[in-house]
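Long-time lurker, first post. I've been practising inverse folding by hand and with some scripts of my own, and I keep getting stuck on stretches where the structure tokens seem ambiguous. Below is the full token string for one chain I'm working on. Before anyone asks, I'm not after the true native sequence, just a reasonable design that respects the backbone. If someone could post their per-position residues I'd love to compare against what I wrote down in my notebook.
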């Protein structure tokens, strides 16, 4: 694939899902992906693209063959958010584990396994909340990505 400049009339790979192609929307100064439906604001002079339908300032520049991410301070998660996420996952798990340790079930009872299972379930549930919020924050279309990869695998076999 030869080096080509970023132009209004071209079709380019989507920098978000890496599966679809982006092209100009009719009568608008915007571009859209055919798979993940994200809307982008192009800057043809600077050869860059900005994700328009997100609060996060995701930006890429066209190097002639593919999109490369632009470094931005908004893309990094602050240490406060990281600390809050760790606390959100660990504190409920520790409370459940501590309660199971302080008030153990009777030995040989039918549900002696329940406190341990509930503690593990608490950890998994809170971790899945943090993972879900991270995916939503970065607007990564996980379902569309997996569906597209599955379709490509079916076509190739």
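-- Answer (accepted) --
I ran through it position by position. Result:
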């Amino acid at each position: 694939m030869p080096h080509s400049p970023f132009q209004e009339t071209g079709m380019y790979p989507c920098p978000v899902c890496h599966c679809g192609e982006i092209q100009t929307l009719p009568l608008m100064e915007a571009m859209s992906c055919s798979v993940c439906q994200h809307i982008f604001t192009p800057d043809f002079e600077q050869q860059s693209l900005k994700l328009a339908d997100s609060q996060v300032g995701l930006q890429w520049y066209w190097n002639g063959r593919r999109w490369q991410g632009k470094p931005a301070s908004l893309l990094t998660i602050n240490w406060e958010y990281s600390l809050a996420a760790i606390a959100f996952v660990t504190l409920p798990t520790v409370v459940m584990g501590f309660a199971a340790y302080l008030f153990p079930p009777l030995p040989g009872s039918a549900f002696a396994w329940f406190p341990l299972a509930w503690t593990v379930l608490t950890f998994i549930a809170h971790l899945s909340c943090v993972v879900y919020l991270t995916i939503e924050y970065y607007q990564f279309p996980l379902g569309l990505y997996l569906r597209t990869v599955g379709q490509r695998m079916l076509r190739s076999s």
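A couple of notes from the structure itself: The first strand starts at residue 12 and ends at 13. Residues 77-152 form one domain. Happy to go over any region you disagree with.
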